[in-house]
Each structure stands twice: as structure tokens, then as C-alpha cells.
Amino acid sequence: MLKILTEASGSLISAYLIHAIKQSGESAVASDISLNCYAKYLADDFILMPLTNDPNLWSKIEESLIDYEINAVIPSLDETLLGWAERKEYFAKKDINVFVSNPEVIKIFQDKWLTYQFFKENDIPTPKTSLEQDFSLIKPRLGRGSIGVFIASEDIDMYGNISQEFIEGIEYTIDVFCDKKSHPVYIVPRKRINVKDGKSTAGVVVDSPKIIDYVKKICEITHFVGPINIQCIETSDGEIKFIEINPRIAGGMALGFAATENWVKLMVDHFIKGKELEPKEVKYGLKMMRYYSEVFTTE
């Protein structure tokens, strides 16, 4: 049985990943910067993580990985994603598998300006974007989710920000699982029905050949590894505008798992055991809704 580490396990949407690890027959090790974390009681074990601004962050993480005999890591925290990618080969020599794309890929898609340039250079439709205040929608260049995104009604300091053409339409997140060669084993578009703080709380899987074809093109151009998610908007006239790519597992990906199969098992089978993958039929029309659940403890 492998010990698989998850990050930021205190998130309200992290439980599905812990359950997926256990359902795959492996041992789930949750982690968070707080001991007051519900995941500690759902997982098989728990690691208290240092703050991301700790000067000894990575030496402390390495020590924990060794102490807890971790075999694999599924990075999900934007603040540490590049660090995991940069150390992927180092940890592999210690028999710790990190399921993440290469650093060059992470650097592009964690930067909204570089992402925009990638889309433009490769003829992927995307909203007009600028480093100046040319558009009303303001986003942090290195931001995540909906944090720091707003409509500007007056001049602002654009340092560290981008401005973007505001696009109205139907929001989609596409869950993608790529193999070692960046071939997309699964492409699962899901329409976002309800969104809270940038996270999907309800959605439905849809069959969109246009979106799927664009995603195939994106995966041919660059090299992704494992689970990633891509966001786009379909306008009222049927145009697709790609917004961003998150080269990591995502909170709403529970629906992608349910519509196909357990992607944790895919990661173990393909990246660790070297098995070839045969995709199953995607369950289009499958809907997901989320709710709060409680954990009780006397600790």
C-alpha cells in the first residue's frame, strides 16, 4: 500500500481527494498548516506543514516526507506548485513520486500574462489582455481563483496586475488527465452551475466537441503530466474564449472522477507501475451538487 500525500487538506473541497486515495486502495496522508483540520480525521495520517513563507520550507517538507514514508505527492497548492515541479526529479531519486508537470510549464500557466501570450501564439481564442489598464476587468497576474479580481471604475496601480476584456457567457472547467507523453486520456468539460470563491459547488458534464478539440490542440503544443484543469467561457454567439490553465488537480475535479474513473488509481497505475491506460466512456449529463458535512471529535 502506497502512502499518498495531499496538500492544503483543510480546504472545504479536499475531502473527495482523500476518499479517492482510500478508494484506490492506497493510504491517504492529509496535510495542512493547521492542526484544527477536519482532514486529519478523514485521512489515514496527517502532517502539519510549515507556512509557505518559512525560509526552511522545503527542508522541513523533505524531512516530513521521509519521516512519514511518503511514496507519492499530489500537489494542489498554487504557492508550492513550482517548488514541487523543481524538485520532482530530486524526490524521484528518493522513491517519492510527485505528480506534476515540469517547471517550464508551471511558470507559464501560473502567470496570466504568459498564459495569454501562449494562447495568442498558438491561435487559441482568448479575451484581449493587457499589462496596462486598457480593460475594466482587473486580475492579479499571479493570482488564483477569484481572489483580487474586480471591475475597476477608476485608474489603479497596475503593478502585478493585468487587465482583461470582460466576457459574458457560460463558464466551463475542463478536467484533463494527461499521460507521460501529454496525451489527454480524459477530457471532461463541465459547465459550472454554482461557483463560490472561485470554486465549483455544482456542475454538469457536457459533450462539447469544439471545447474538446481545442483542449487536444493545447495538449499537443505543451507537455502536461497528470491532472490539470482548463477554464473557458462560451459566449452567446457560440464563441469559445479560453481564460486560464491550472496545471494541477482542482477542487471541482470530483465530478471529472465520477464521470470517468478514479484518477488517483490512474496516476498510480500509469506513473508508478508503468501501465498503459484505456479510457472509459465519459458519463455526459452527470451532475454534481455539494453540501457541508460535519466531523465530530473529542480531541
CATH C-level class of the largest domain: Alpha Beta
CATH topology of the largest domain: D-amino Acid Aminotransferase, Chain A, domain 1
Largest sheet: 6 strands, antiparallel
Number of domains: 3
Query: Globular, elongated, flat, extended or rod-shaped: what is the shape?
Result: globular
Strand content: 25-35%
Class computed from helices, strands and strand pairing: alpha/beta
- Examine the secondary-structure arrangement and name the CATH architecture of the largest domain: 2-Layer Sandwich
H/E element order: EHEHEHEHHEHHEEEEEEEHEEHHE
Strand element count:
15
Task: Give me the Rg, rounded.
Answer: 19 Å
Strand order of the largest sheet: 14-13-10-11-12-15
Distance between the ends: 28 Å
Contiguous low-pLDDT stretches (5 residues minimum) are none
CATH superfamily of the largest domain, by name, is ATP-grasp fold, B domain
Percentage of residues assigned to helices: 25-40%
What would you say this structure looks like, in words?
- With 299 residues, the protein is an alpha/beta fold.
- The protein folds into three domains: 3-100, Rossmann fold, CATH 3.40.50; 128-166, no CATH class; 167-289, ATP-grasp fold, B domain (D-amino Acid Aminotransferase, Chain A, domain 1, 2-Layer Sandwich).
- The mean pLDDT is 95.
- The longest helix is centred in the C-terminal third of the chain and has 13 residues, at 209-221.
- α1 links the parallel β1 (3-6) and β2 (27-32).
- It has helices at residues 15-23, 39-42, 57-67, 78-86, 88-92, 103-109, 112-121, 209-221, 254-259, 263-272; strands at 3-6, 27-32, 45-48, 72-74, 97-98, 129-130, 137-140, 150-151, 161-164, 170-178, 184-196, 199-205, 226-234, 240-246, 287-289.
- The protein is globular, with a radius of gyration of 19 Å.
- The strands form three sheets. The chain has a six-stranded antiparallel beta sheet. The protein has a five-stranded parallel beta sheet with strand order 3-2-1-4-5.
- The chain is built from ten helices and 15 strands.
